[in-house]
Each structure stands twice: as C-alpha cells, then as structure tokens.
Specification:
By secondary structure, the chain is mainly α. Helix content is 35%, strand content 0%.
Length: 180
C-alpha cells in the first residue's frame, strides 16, 4: 500500500512538472553548433546572441514556477523608492541579530559584516559601513529596495517583498550605521 501511494505521488509530481514545463526554444543553425547551446538545461539549445530572440525565449526550456499565472508571466513587484519617515529609532543589537539570521535578513550570505562568521563575497564589505558617510534615510532606502537605485541588483527587496517589517528595517539600518 505504501509503495503504490509513493508511486502515485511521484507520478503526480512528474505530471505537474511536465504539464507546466514549456517546450524547448527553437534554435538557429549557428546556435545548434555553438558550445553554449549544448550546455543549456535538459538538452535544450538557446538562441544565439544577436538573433533578436526575446529574453523569455532564452529560458523556454525551464519549468514554469507559478501555479496561478501562465508560464513566462510570473509576477514581480515593481521597485519602490521608500523614504525614511521620522527618526530612525532602531536598535543596533537587534539589527545585528536580524542581519545575521538566516531566516530574516541573511545579509551574511553576500556581505562581510561586523560580528558575522562565514561571510559571503558577492556583495560589498559592510563591516565599516557607518564610516562611509551615508545617512540614515539613504541607508533605509537601500535596504528597503535596492532595485530603485540599481535595477539589476542581486540584493533582495527586503521592504517591498515584506521580508522585514518597518521596525526590523530600522534596526538593520541602525546596525549598519553603528559599524565603524
């Protein structure tokens, strides 16, 4: 009985993935001959650079990640340039805990920060951020949604996506400003 239930679950999962996956993108003869085309996922070949293919066509072989929207139409929240309202009133000690916590800020995944262990190297070193001369309002706006300044950033929009609430954002900003 357990074996048939497990087989049923696997069959349903495969059916869901198969039904949601898009068909591979069409290729040009130049793309089929290129080594880059051979390295794409699931054996699909990507269009050659400069062929006028749309970005969506380049990723047509990837599975759809939305349960409610058609493939290629996954919703993305627009960048928000939010300003700090009122005084900062953040707690640097709480901000350090939030920034280092993997289930909250997880800033150490990309940044070097004071008091952190096993930092990442993708983002800039923030261990002396407070001595850079940036104000509380500018830092708050950066942490809230960096995409308002740098559209193709890898930094998550902590405020726009409600990863951190307003007080947690203020605490992280206080921690960054205290790092000298």
């Amino acid at each position: 009985m357990k074996q048939s239930a497990a087989a049923c679950v696997i069959a349903l999962a495969l059916a869901a993935l198969t039904g949601c996956a898009q068909s591979p993108a069409t290729t040009t003869p130049a793309a089929a001959a290129s080594p880059a085309g051979a390295a794409s996922p699931a054996g699909a070949q990507l269009p050659a650079a400069g062929t006028g293919a749309t970005p969506a066509a380049k990723f047509a072989a990837f599975p759809c990640l939305s349960y409610t929207l058609p493939c290629g139409k996954v919703a993305t929240r627009k960048p928000v340039a939010k300003q700090l309202e009122g005084p900062l009133a953040g707690d640097a000690t709480r901000g350090m805990r939030i920034a280092h916590a993997r289930d909250k800020g997880n800033c150490l995944a990309c940044h070097v920060m004071k008091g952190g262990t096993q930092p990442g190297s993708r983002g800039p070193d923030l261990s002396h951020y407070g001595s850079t001369g940036r104000g509380d309002a500018e830092t708050y706006a950066i942490v809230y949604d960096m995409r308002a300044r740098i559209p193709d950033t890898l930094m998550p929009p902590f405020g726009t996506n409600a990863i951190l609430d307003d007080q947690e954002l203020r605490d992280v900003v206080a921690y960054l400003q205290a790092s000298r």
